[in-house]
Design goal:
This protein is of the alpha/beta class. The chain has eleven helices and 18 strands. It is elongated, with a radius of gyration of 27 Å.
Length: 413
């Protein structure tokens, strides 16, 4: 039997179990049973393959048989505990009832518990859950211990928590306190973070009396590193914005700044646009971001797609990712916001919202369809309705990614 990776469509747990046993019947039995219990199951029919899976897959627990040819369980657990990449993975020892000495040796080598053959499948699941209940907190706390070093004390953790809270508050204050107000326009925003701090951002930058800079972006990754880069980009966009410059020029300047002052693995996507308040002309440049969607009502001509009685134009003119390549170039394009038109800017936390069925996502097509049939709503009502539809689609209020939305609706002109 070759090693396999198997996961049920009804998996309710994200935890992975690696089963190492040379008995093909036992492998198949455990795979079926544990998968039905909601685990992702990886199997290996020899110790060498099992060690490689342990390094590559980093399972949450290993079920390890003692008696195997070539490399027995004692040798496997010894190598697991010697390797810094695998020495923290809990091991559940599988022995025969007569192998008392092996049980003791396994526990001395670092096994967390044992079960004996022949076993009851309910006992296997119960022992796995018991071990995971003890080791699960350690799995997530260890990286924190390593990062904090000598500061990992109750007081140190409390201080770290207060610092994260302060960072979240600072970041929140960097966002516009409220959408801008201009006669003939209706602005609204939606912003939610998947953690205490966010890598998504939006901004409104005044450029004289009748021009407004509109910014929306998404930094690669989550958490503190993404949040720090987000602050850098947002600050740069404010400092580098100039009434006379095109959006493409501004994105090029931001790209150069990021490329020379950040790690090569750090980059962002963003859209920068300038709205002419008097005419409704929106000039923009797109730096590798989800294309903003221009919903066009009435009889205005466009090359866009007809959807729900309106026409749709995707604003994708621009260039490459921001901060990834020094040679990146950008271009600008325009669209015209007429009365009743809606411009939607959003991050991929919207379209990549996972549905109740795993690996099915909200997507651009559903977003266009949903917004297109609700254009009569105000900008704020559109944001609220979209948020509600995303929650209904996912079946949860928990976010896996940050989410930012800007809606601009022209109500006169």
């Amino acid at each position: 039997m070759s090693e396999t990776i198997f996961q049920s469509d009804e998996t309710s747990s994200n935890e992975t179990i690696l089963v190492i046993d040379d008995d093909t019947d036992i492998l198949e039995l455990l795979k079926i049973s544990l998968t039905s219990d909601g685990f992702k199951v990886i199997t290996a029919n020899n110790g060498l393959t099992g060690l490689q899976h342990a390094k590559d897959e980093q399972p949450d627990l290993i079920l390890l048989d003692v008696m195997m040819p070539q490399m027995d369980g004692l040798e496997v657990i010894g190598k697991l505990k010697e390797d810094t990449e695998t020495n923290t993975i809990p091991v559940l020892w599988i022995t025969a009832r007569t192998q008392t000495e092996d049980k003791l040796v396994g526990l001395e080598l670092g096994a967390d518990d044992y079960i004996t053959k022949p076993f009851d499948l309910r006992e296997v699941t119960a022992r796995i859950n018991a071990v995971l209940g003890r080791t699960r907190p350690v799995k997530y706390i260890n990286p924190l211990i390593n990062a904090m070093g000598d500061s990992f004390t109750e007081a140190g953790v409390a201080e770290l928590g207060s610092h994260l809270q302060a960072a979240a508050e600072i970041q929140q204050r960097l966002l516009p306190e409220k959408p801008p107000t201009f006669p003939g326009y209706d602005f609204a925003t939606l912003f939610r973070s998947s953690t205490s701090v966010s890598g998504d951002f939006y901004d409104f930058i005044p450029l004289g009396d009748s021009r407004l800079g509109v910014v929306l972006g998404d930094v690669k990754g989550h958490g503190i590193p993404a949040a720090l880069l987000m602050v850098m980009i947002q600050t740069a966009s404010r400092l580098l914005s100039n009434e006379a410059d095109s959006p493409a020029t501004i994105l090029k300047r931001i790209n150069t700044l990021l490329f020379h002052n950040t790690d090569l693995e750090q980059f962002a996507t963003m859209v920068y646009g300038i709205l002419e308040i008097d005419t409704g002309t929106f000039t923009y440049s797109n730096g590798g971001h989800c294309p903003p969607i221009h919903f066009i009502t009435g009889t205005q001509n466009t090359d866009g797609v007809t959807q729900n009685g309106c026409q749709v134009d995707l604003l994708d003119t621009g260039g490459m990712l921001i901060g990834a390549f020094d040679i990146a170039t950008f271009s600008s394009a325009t669209c015209q916001l007429a009365r009743g038109n809606v411009l939607l800017l959003y991050t991929d936390g919207v379209t990549e919202t996972e549905g109740k069925t795993p690996n099915e996502f909200y997507g651009e097509e559903r977003l266009i369809e949903y917004m297109g049939k609700n254009l009569a709503l105000t900008a704020e009502e559109l944001c609220d309705a979209l948020q509600k539809d995303l929650m209904e689609y996912s079946g949860t209020t928990q976010l896996k990614d940050d989410r930012a939305v800007v809606v601009i609706k022209r109500i006169e002109g």
